[in-house]
DNA sequence: GGCCAGGCTAGCA
DNA sequence: TGCTAGCATGGC
């Protein structure tokens, strides 16, 4: 067993994280809101184990307390620290983003309403890509169901002290070994099953090298990955945002973002992709973060928790 | 019961 | 180069 603390660059809101996880179900996380905690299984190298993450210190002096259910080697500890800092964007400074949003009267109210909201990133790029392909065109609830079935089919499992199972996302090797028909039985469409297995096989046989993305610009990464069947621009934009935490992506084809921009900018009809890109120009160089806030604004609006900015005026 | 979901491809003009 | 049907199913 191992415990350590990670300071987080303030502000960080556990409440906003919880709200996002509730509207974006992820079977890999267990939420324990009464003590501001999360649990999930991690896989570091070949070992899977359970991690409890406790958010201390509140919005303005946040600290993340990390506890594992088994002891780790020094190398594994270092990898876990790095992965956790990455996933929770512990080093990101939101102040320049908020200052930028203050210059747009439509965005300014979001900085207070959602203060401390950050991305919850995927722990690795393979997982991020597979989850994004599953999410293509499907509602979030059904995408989560399909992801959970894939985890159960092909992922490792670890148990907590009560025997409750925590599934670990399958490795590329495990998915590469699957047959199309196995995913069809889980209610994946024929094409989605092909895209996911083909991608896993491309990673395993090194036809695609995800490590190389680190050295590429956003546009280079989009060119590199959209060469693969089943991977379009939206999918890579999401990978760069939710897998890598790149700050300036705008998935203009995204239906949720289109709904969010229509709401925040009080537009009479749903904006098309060109209109989204035109509006997003002024969000640079923080288009990813502002997209996140606009997504959350629309989610809160749908739950009846957030009024249109113009309705307040 | 119809339409929309955090899209993409193949096929056709 | 640009447009559209089809994909699978859940939720409203």
Automatic annotation (TrEMBL):
Q: Which SUPFAM superfamilies match?
A: DNA-glycosylase
Picking any one GO biological process from the record gives: base-excision repair, AP site formation
CDD domains per record: ENDO3c
Catalysed reactions, as listed in the record: Hydrolysis of alkylated DNA, releasing 3-methyladenine, 3-methylguanine, 7-methylguanine and 7-methyladenine
What the entry lists under Pfam families is as follows: AlkA_N, HhH-GPD
The HhH-GPD domain covers: 134-299
Q: Which GO terms describe its molecular function?
A: alkylated DNA binding; DNA-3-methyladenine glycosylase activity; DNA-7-methylguanine glycosylase activity
Into which family does the record put it? Belongs to the alkylbase DNA glycosidase AlkA family.
What protein name applies here?
A: DNA-3-methyladenine glycosylase II
Species name: Brevibacillus fulvus
């Amino acid at each position: 067993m191992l415990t350590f603390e990670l300071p987080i660059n303030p502000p960080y809101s556990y409440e906003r994280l919880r709200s996002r996880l509730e509207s974006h179900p992820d079977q890999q996380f267990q939420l324990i809101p009464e003590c501001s905690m999360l649990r999930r299984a991690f896989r570091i190298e070949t070992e899977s184990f359970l991690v409890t993450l406790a958010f201390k210190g509140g919005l303005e002096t946040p600290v993340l307390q990390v506890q594992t259910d088994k002891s780790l080697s020094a190398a594994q500890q270092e990898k876990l620290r790095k992965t956790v800092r990455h996933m929770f964007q512990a080093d990101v400074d939101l102040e320049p983003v908020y200052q930028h949003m203050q210059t747009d009267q439509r965005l300014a109210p979001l900085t207070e309403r959602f203060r401390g909201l950050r991305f919850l990133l995927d722990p690795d790029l393979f997982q991020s890509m597979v989850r994004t392909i599953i999410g293509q065109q499907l509602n979030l609830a059904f995408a989560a169901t399909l992801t959970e079935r894939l985890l159960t089919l092909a992922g490792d499992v670890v148990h907590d002290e009560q025997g409750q199972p925590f599934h670990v996302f399958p490795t590329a090797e495990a998915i590469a070994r699957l047959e199309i028909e196995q995913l069809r039985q889980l209610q994946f469409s024929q094409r989605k099953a092909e895209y996911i297995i083909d991608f896993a096989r491309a990673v395993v046989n090194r036809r695609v090298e995800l490590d190389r993305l680190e050295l590429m610009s956003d546009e280079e990464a989009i060119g590199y990955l959209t060469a693969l069947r089943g991977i379009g621009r939206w999918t890579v934009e999401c990978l760069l945002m939710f897998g890598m935490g790149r700050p300036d992506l705008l998935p203009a084809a995204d239906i949720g973002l289109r709904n969010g921009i229509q709401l925040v900018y009080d537009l009479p009809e749903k904006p098309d992709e060109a209109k989204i890109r035109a509006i997003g120009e002024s969000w640079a160089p923080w288009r990813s973060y502002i997209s996140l806030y606009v997504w959350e604004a629309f989610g809160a609006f749908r739950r009846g928790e957030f009024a249109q900015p113009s309705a307040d005026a």
